[in-house]
Amino acid sequence: MLEVRDLEVAFGPVAPLSGVSFSLAKGETLGIVGESGSGKSLTAMSVMGLLPLSGGRITAGSIVFDGQELTTLAEPAYRKLRGARLGLITQNPMTSLDPLQKIGPQVDDVAVLHLGMTGSEARARTIDILGTLRIPEPQLICDRYPHQMSGGMKQRIVIAMALAADPDVLVADEPTTALDVTVQAQIIRLLDDLVKERDLALVLITHDMSVVAQTCDKVVVMYAGRAIEHGPVEAIFDAPQHPYTQALIGCIPKGLSDDEHLTGIPGTVPTVLNYPTGCPFHPRCLRAEDVCSTDRPAFVQHGQSAAACHFAGAAP
Amino acid sequence: MTNKLEVRNFSKQFTSPGGPFRKARAMHAVNDVSFDLPAGRVIGVVGESGCGKSTLARLILRLIEPSTGSLKFDGDDLRAKTPTQMRKLRADMQMVFQDPYSAIDPRYTIARAVMEPFEVQGRKPQGTAVEEIDALLTMVGLNPGLAGSFPHQISGGQKQRVGIARALALRPSLLVLDEPTASLDVSVQAQIISLLEQLRDDLGLTYLFISHDLSLVRYFCDEILVMYLGRVVEALPDTDLPARHPYTATLMDSTFAPDPKLRRVITSLEGEVPSPFNLPPGCAFADRCPGATAVCRTETPILSALDGHPVACHHPL
Amino acid sequence: MTSMTGTAARAMAGFGGTAVGRAFGSWLGKIAGGFLVLLILTAIFAPWITPFDYAAQDLMNGNAPPGWPHLLGTDQFGRDVLSRVIYGARTSLSVSATAIAISITVGMTLGAAAGYFGGFFERAVMTVVDLTWSFPDILIALIFVAIIGPGLTSTTFAIAIAYLAQFTRLTRAQIVRLKRETFIEATINLGAKPRHILLKHLLPNAIAPVIVVGMLAIGDGIVLEATLGFFGLGAQPPTPSWGAMMSSGTAQLFLSPWVIIFPGVVVAVTVIAVNLFGDELIRALDIRDRIRGA
């Protein structure tokens, strides 16, 4: 459904993203996981064709959606795709909703615009979608303003807008980060159900390895603007090949035994202005050797997953 | 074991006065909270936004005055202290803040920031100022070469280490940690947690750890207080114990394990934390609780201990 | 986000030499700043560089057009216009700068106290200060003239009061914003006294925008001084002041326009230079939104 190959993005002279590849089929959830500055949100914006808004552009690679190349697509054509076949859920629901407009019209607009429905058809559809998102009393909600609702409810409205035109691919950029844990669980379950019921392809962008473990089928791990490991979720968690993936999993307390000890990863996440040469992780990597600071490692297939590490597959 | 802290019936009510266009409102940010923090232990306070956990931290340090309740620090009635006495005592009870980005004056160098506690308390460090700066920065795992840097020149994790160094400069015995890792990257969060563990062992510190992250609290703490809308609904004397309050059970169900083999079936708890203003009578969780009965909506359950595991629920699990 | 706070922090930490240096960085800053430096030097060294005594009358040579030896001509009493413009810089700059200095001192004290202590005190201070804002500057000047007579002292106080509200409000807004920062709570928790919080944290962090607005206000002060001088409420003869010179020039506007044109041009250029350089400073310090927010 969606295939990204060697994506590279530049803002003027800096290239905050390069060498990102993944593919996604219907009914699948792909997790893109990384810390701040890893380029995961830029990946989402690239797929949605929203880079020009912030002054960025795609300088290499391809994004193929349902057989159609998106990197060369003109903006008017992209606009038809966006919202209709590609849905986006952002981190902060407050900025995705118009504070001056009632909920009903905001959701209706999507169907009117993309499906050519009349106002009353669209409203019926809106109420139907709000119902499937387990929003109580959808008719009443339509007459409310965003500020009258809680954060979790607003995020559901944003999801409803993303679903209104029945998209094939949903890109969710940190959809639960701003929410409380119990609400996060509800939203995660909702997204899970949607993927199954509607046969959606979901790209879930998150910094939280636990969320990935809970929901995703496939994972791309990103660091300093590059994909460094990808594969099926079980393989990534059972036998992570890249030292960064291993360390990232080790940063989360599992609560299985009292002997468990977190150490973290020494050093700090690099910013786009000081991306290291060679393997981007080498300054923080315990296994790094001379070659890591000079040569950029290529992806090495190991079992079902592949890692960009000079020592991938070698016993740790 | 002596108690570092004894908190009794702490309540804090915020009121917003009415005006021509709005009604007066009262909010019970913290409601009848009591607990003991034994010296050398780590108690975690966990809850979602608006549960009053950060207010509780500030009440304990008397950065805010409680509406009612008593507070003993090392057996000493803290609320009876004059402002001058309190200022001296603060040297012994410090806090690490959630947002390291604004926790240091942007005009201060790192060296000046970690020496400010001495200036404020009118004390002299053991050795020279340079030795003390070196010792403090080394203690929190920072390169002493950073002493001349300004906060904007260092990373969030490094800023949080400076915050910890500042808090420890006067060698306090109690540290209140208010979500010290919530605004940091995961890899840096684990570094800071590991540093706090090591400092606790080296310096014999007592911690009150405030967090929204149950798995982190379970990993880091000896005991857990679960708060919901200003009240302690459950006190887990051991982090491995199963939940007895339905809210704690929900929290546990909402916390995912970093392992796809341990996927949860997410229970269908609906709704969100209600507004803390003008709460209805009865159990605050009743509206979201699958096991709520008539009594839950009329009578507020009291935190009561059966076999040393207190829970505030009419129908504990 | 982080980089934004970084820039702001850098701007705050670097106020002083580096910010002024950066303001001089652009060509606009160089021209405006250069002119101001030249003007200040001229005012300081006026006795050594003026070709004639500013008060010396030479009635035989009245209303002489620009030429030699009177480069900018003479006025109706035959006094050298260039010398009077140079000495006028002294009057204008010192009156305006003194007035703004008084205004900043009082305004920062009131604003800091209001912002820090809050409550009834804050409301009382802000009400009184806002009242002074609602009076026209000329009216305030007239009140002082009525009390202590016309002259530069009245002008100075009138300008000081005219800008008091602006500095009080700006400082109060800074303090209220800074009070919510975590480092203030952290310092209180170290056992710091209010005096320490105010003097070591709040005021040093609040000062940059106040200084910049103060600098812009000096430009406005020059105009106000000239206005008051023009109406005869400011400098009294024979003290030269740009405003008073223009006023006396109106009588011979067509006979000897240079008497009114040159002081007018200098006022205009000075005010433009002050504003341009102030803008460069605001840019260098990255405090535009903090000034606008007040």
- Kindly provide the radius of gyration of chain C, computed on alpha-carbon positions and rounded to a whole number of angstroms: 22 Å
Number of domains of chain C: 1
Radius of gyration of chain A: 20 Å
Please list the strands of the largest sheet of chain A in the order they lie side by side.
6-7-8-3-9-10-12-11
SSE topology sketch:
The complex is a heterotrimer of chains A (316), B (317) and C (294).
Chain A: E1 2-11, E2 14-24, E3 29-33, H1 40-48, E4 57-65, E5 68-69, H2 75-81, E6 86-89, H3 93-96, H4 103-115, H5 119-132, H6 138-142, H7 151-163, E7 169-173, H8 181-198, E8 201-206, H9 209-215, E9 218-223, E10 226-232, H10 233-238, H11 243-250, H12 290-294, E11 299-302, E12 305-308
Parallel strand pairs in A: 3-8, 3-9, 6-7, 7-8
Antiparallel strand pairs in A: 1-2, 1-4, 4-5, 9-10, 10-12, 11-12
Chain B: E1 3-16, E2 25-38, E3 42-46, H1 53-60, E4 68-73, E5 76-77, H2 83-89, E6 93-96, H3 110-121, H4 129-139, H5 156-168, E7 174-178, H6 186-203, E8 206-211, H7 214-220, E9 223-228, E10 231-236, H8 246-254, E11 304-306, E12 309-311
Parallel strand pairs in B: 3-8, 3-9, 6-7, 7-8
Antiparallel strand pairs in B: 1-2, 1-4, 4-5, 9-10, 11-12
Helix pairs in contact in B: 3-5
Chain C: H1 2-13, H2 17-23, H3 27-44, H4 46-49, H5 81-117, H6 119-134, H7 137-148, H8 152-179, H9 182-189, H10 194-230, H11 242-249, H12 258-285, H13 288-292
Helix pairs in contact in C: 2-12, 3-5, 3-12, 5-6, 5-8, 5-10, 5-12, 6-8, 7-8, 8-10, 10-11, 10-12, 11-12
